[in-house]
Records
---
Amino acid sequence: MDTIITIGRQFGSGGKEIGQKVAEYFDIKCYDKELLSRAAKDSGYCQEILESHDERPTTSFLYNLVLDTYSFGYNSSSFIDMPISHKVFLAQFESIKKLAEESPCVIVGRCADYALSDMKQCINLFIYGDEESKVKRIMEKYQLSEQKALDMIIKKDKQRQSYYNYYSSKKWGRADTYDLCINSSKFGIEGSVEMIIQAVKNFEAGR
């Protein structure tokens, strides 16, 4: 097994749990918040800075500047003048590529599919769900009222969508952005895991 699995997810869809279970099945690592520790180690930034900018959009992003900086390396003068939020994105981007080169793994969120767009052994998934089941999950997980859970879902998904659409050339949550989209509300956590496992097996068999 040498496949890299990336998972985009709506808040409350169980995407992280699904990713962890898929990783357990294939006996590979799953990176979600763990990616921040790696990015901190690789970049030299403290983890608190990375956490404060994690999957959060920025309003003053110069897309070509960041791409040019990434192409020419961190020593360019443009990188020195770049806002910290952009540097955090580049640090995560670099760590995602390193992790994928080291060994097969599951990476949750953080534009991983975009960072690994050149890797042929990568399969990109998106987990979504209906509002009722997502609200119920968030209410139980964070002990929130129905309205507060819904507000949290809307806020988190808006952040993730803005972040993804800002930094990548694709659209968050749109079917043609991914290889497979799964409704975890309809198939459940275990059912979604089984579908992904089979999809990975089919993907590897067809390569």
Note: The chain has a mean pLDDT of 87.
---
Amino acid sequence: MADHRDDSLQAGPEQVLYAYILEKGMYFGLLFLILTFLLYVLGVISPYIPKADISRYWSLNVSDYLHTAKIEAGWAWLSMVGYGDFLNFVPIVILAGITIICFAAIVPLLWKEKDRVYACLAVLEVLILVLAASGILGSGGH
């Protein structure tokens, strides 16, 4: 049987770029997540909620937890990244947001290749993801 290769199954340059950025971002986010977790667990950075008290909060629903711990919902955690238990959120945001960076990165390539429809769809994807993450829609940013 002859080896018959279908070139249409080859990844395009925008797919390769997207995958490259996604891979590097995932590795960076994962490494950063491990680092911030170690800083928290080893007590290098003090937590907002002491580790001895954390089990008290496990049975609470989100609104009760936020009220009891005196934490604002949404993106208010950004003001608390000085605490070890909130510093862990930064790499989570990186991991969740890398898709936005991937889509934004391929727009110029799609535009250059005169693939205007996909370029516009990628821009719309970026705008929708940023809008959803912003919390403007009332989702709290998650």
Note: The chain has a mean pLDDT of 90.
---
Amino acid sequence: MKAMILAAGLGTRLKPWTDYHPKALAVVNNKSLLQRNIEYLQQAGITDVVVNVHHFAGQITETIQRHNGWGSSITISDETDTVLETGGGLKKAGWYFAGETDFVLMNVDVLTNLPLQQMLAAHSQQAPLATLAVTDRKTSRYFLFDEQGTLCGWRNTQTGEQKIARESAVLVEKAFSGIHVIHHSLLGLMQQQGKFSMVDVYLSQATNHVIKAYDHSGTKFIDVGKPESILKAEALFDK
């Protein structure tokens, strides 16, 4: 199995670090976010990884080369000209997954001990178009699922915006953790062009395809998006 780590973002919430460095190289207890997630994927037996780059792209590629990919085979998807967001980034790198049945997609700025092999097993058993890691934590934007864990929509609790793709009498709010297991057929279904979000992809497909939740509430998880979250991450992930 292969994976993609999304590392092209500007990381504006992580200033002042990202005034001079990419967020992927922010350090938590002597290891960069990128290294930690490469090693996280290795724990599930995944050593073939594509990483997209944009902001201070050269620093990322040089660091990967200097450390020999930390033991993994790493391919670069270059978005130096235009950052394409999560969906556009995956579409540009879609060629990398030719011949794969399923693959993992994850954000570089999330750290977790979610049992990825268990998530992969659940995805294989249920065979949805995609499986999304979620928890019950509080946030402003939620995916909405029915009681069977099938994606129905999306809600922004700050603005009141809501998008429903599949009708359900009950809508359960779950916070997305930035980790996906995706069936390769999704790549051929993506009609969006240029810069777009995976949220838009899932909402456009949820009407006619099954997209499932994998709830890992109770595991360690942090979105390392702000400077103060570095300290919290160091307390959670001390190795």
Note: The longest helix spans residues 33-43.
